[in-house]
């Protein structure tokens, strides 16, 4: 038993060293660019921030629904899942709107879903666990459970190669998990309930928002907070999104406002967010903000039951998507930005055509609020 415990400790230390080496390697391969504190932000002393995103795997859009046939399709090329307060995760045949697989999540409601880049696994974040399920099997049980948070897990995601996972929780922490090892290897204290967290495309920084109204940048190579922004003191940040090319960051809050920053290259300071726009997107809570993969649209979902699509060229309202009967909690774009999937307290999810603003499919099956959705319809070129 003593030898076993010693071996486990050595494995955990090796895993932590591997993660640090991966961050450093990523930073070196990406080059360096710097950013500085904005006028509306108080900042920590900067310790090195944002790097140019290059050498990412090329992603191409699959024809939405391609490869899908029978309801029990064992290996769908388009993976669509929803979850919520009925303690279930449902997989959908995207074009036909048919649920072909249901997973039970007995411990709690499901707050967030994320699919690994290779489409092999689905992470379901609840209270206080994260369960990892296989996507393309009939196994209804989680293959792994990640335990360490002390409250609702409100954010979950994977780095682009699927080697490690990050999470945020209302216990006030952001954590990093090596998928090959047990437990978490990194923990960052936010001093407020974490409501959202996203990974910068450079792979070496996390951006989180919290209930106290703070947006923080966590430098994974320096293992520290490198910048703190406060768009509105005391107004909860509900969602954060970053452009796929690393050029923009958007933070949405409980007053219905979206703050947009431009991330500058070549600045002399190590943390520079240039304020670009302040958008009053809704007159109620903004529950999710999301930049489209082509960096042309900003989607916002709200407690006012609507979804809005904003053109980033001038931040003009392009479409208002109406049809949900209750709060719209989550959304995700298809990889070509032609479609948007939304999840709502009205127990349904919807597939929208972004060009026409029409709901072309309704996914009905949940018995309580559907609060999260995940979609992976991309293919990675060899």
Give your account of this protein's structure.
With 382 residues, the protein is mainly beta. The protein is 8% helix and 44% strand. The strands form 8 sheets. The protein has a 4-stranded antiparallel sheet with strand order 4-3-2-29, with no helix packed on it. Strands 5-6-7-8 form a 4-stranded antiparallel sheet, with no helix packed on it. It has a 4-stranded antiparallel sheet with strand order 9-10-11-12. The N and C termini lie far apart (44 Å). The N terminus is likely disordered.
Helix content: under 10%
Strand fraction: 35-45%
The biggest beta sheet reads: 4 strands, antiparallel
Strand order of the largest sheet: 4-3-2-29
Mean pLDDT value: 84
The count of helical stretches stands at 1
Quaternary status: single chain
- CA distance, first residue to last residue: 44 Å
Question: Layout of helices and strands, plus pairs?
Answer:
Elements (H helix, E strand, L loop, with lengths): L1 H29 L28 E3 L17 E6 L3 E6 L4 E7 L7 E4 L5 E5 L4 E5 L9 E3 L6 E6 L5 E6 L3 E6 L7 E4 L4 E6 L5 E6 L4 E5 L4 E6 L7 E6 L5 E6 L3 E7 L9 E8 L5 E6 L5 E6 L4 E5 L4 E6 L6 E6 L5 E6 L3 E6 L5 E6 L5 E7 L1 E3 L2
Antiparallel strand pairs: 1-30, 2-3, 2-29, 3-4, 5-6, 6-7, 7-8, 9-10, 10-11, 11-12, 13-14, 14-15, 15-16, 17-18, 18-19, 19-20, 21-22, 22-23, 23-24, 25-26, 26-27, 27-28
């Amino acid at each position: 038993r003593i030898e076993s415990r010693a071996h486990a400790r050595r494995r955990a230390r090796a895993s932590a060293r591997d993660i640090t080496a991966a961050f450093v390697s990523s930073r070196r391969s990406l080059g360096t660019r710097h950013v500085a504190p904005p006028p509306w932000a108080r900042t920590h002393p900067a310790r090195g921030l944002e790097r140019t995103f290059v050498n990412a795997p090329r992603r191409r859009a699959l024809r939405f629904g391609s490869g899908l046939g029978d309801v029990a399709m064992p290996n769908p090329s388009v993976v669509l899942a929803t979850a919520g307060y009925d303690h279930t995760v449902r997989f959908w045949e995207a074009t036909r709107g048919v649920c072909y697989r249901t997973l039970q999540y007995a411990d709690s409601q499901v707050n967030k879903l994320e699919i690994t880049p290779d489409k092999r696994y689905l992470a379901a974040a609840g209270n206080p666990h994260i369960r990892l399920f296989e996507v393309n099997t009939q196994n209804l049980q989680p293959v792994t459970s990640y335990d360490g948070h002390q409250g609702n897990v409100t954010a979950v995601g994977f780095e682009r190669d699927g080697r490690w996972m990050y999470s945020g929780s209302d216990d006030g922490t952001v954590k990093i998990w090596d998928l090959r090892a047990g437990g978490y290897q990194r923990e960052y204290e936010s001093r407020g309930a974490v409501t959202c967290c996203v990974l910068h495309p450079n792979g070496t920084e996390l951006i989180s928002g919290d209930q106290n109204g703070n947006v923080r940048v966590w430098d994974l190579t320096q293992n520290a907070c490198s910048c703190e922004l406060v768009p509105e003191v005391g107004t909860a940040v509900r969602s954060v999104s970053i452009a796929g090319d690393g050029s923009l960051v958007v933070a949405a809050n409980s007053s219905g406002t979206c703050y947009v920053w431009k991330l500058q290259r070549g600045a002399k300071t190590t943390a520079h967010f240039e304020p670009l726009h302040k958008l009053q997107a809704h007159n109620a809570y903004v529950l999710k903000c999301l930049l489209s993969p082509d960096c042309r649209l900003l989607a916002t979902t709200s407690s006012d039951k609507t979804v809005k699509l904003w053109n980033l060229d001038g931040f003009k309202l392009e479409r208002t998507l109406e049809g949900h009967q209750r709060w719209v909690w989550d959304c995700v774009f298809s990889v070509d930005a032609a479609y948007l999937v939304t999840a709502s307290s009205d127990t349904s999810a919807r597939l929208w055509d972004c060009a026409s603003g029409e709901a072309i499919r309704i996914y009905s099956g949940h018995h309580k609020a559907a609060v999260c959705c995940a979609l992976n319809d991309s293919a990675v070129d060899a």
